[in-house]
Amino acid sequence: MAVTVFSQLDKSLHSHLATLTDLAERGDDQTALVLARVELPRVVAVVKALLDEHQPDEHGRCATCKRGWFSRRMPAPCRAYLSAQLILTVVGQETSHGKHLRSVG
Length: 105
Ligand SMILES: [Zn+2]
Description:
This protein is 72% helix and 0% strand. The chain has two domains: 1-52, no CATH class; 57-105, no CATH class. It is mainly alpha-helical.
């Protein structure tokens, strides 16, 4: 695959996110504080900006997601909202549960 400006941006973004995750998991308390105060609001802003592209109606159908794989006859539940909900609730609970177990044991 050719190296484009966009692929460089994509790589750089993923690298930044991986660094944030790594620091959150392994960093000391001071690092965690900076992450929470400085980086977390930025990540929240990014999630909000992405979700702004998706405006599901009361049935969860989303015009942005409708343009994708779902046919016009089928309702298209907004995948962005579903993913955000799933990751922030289900995955988040598993992670904090795991951390709790590690700190106890
Ligand atoms: Zn959507």
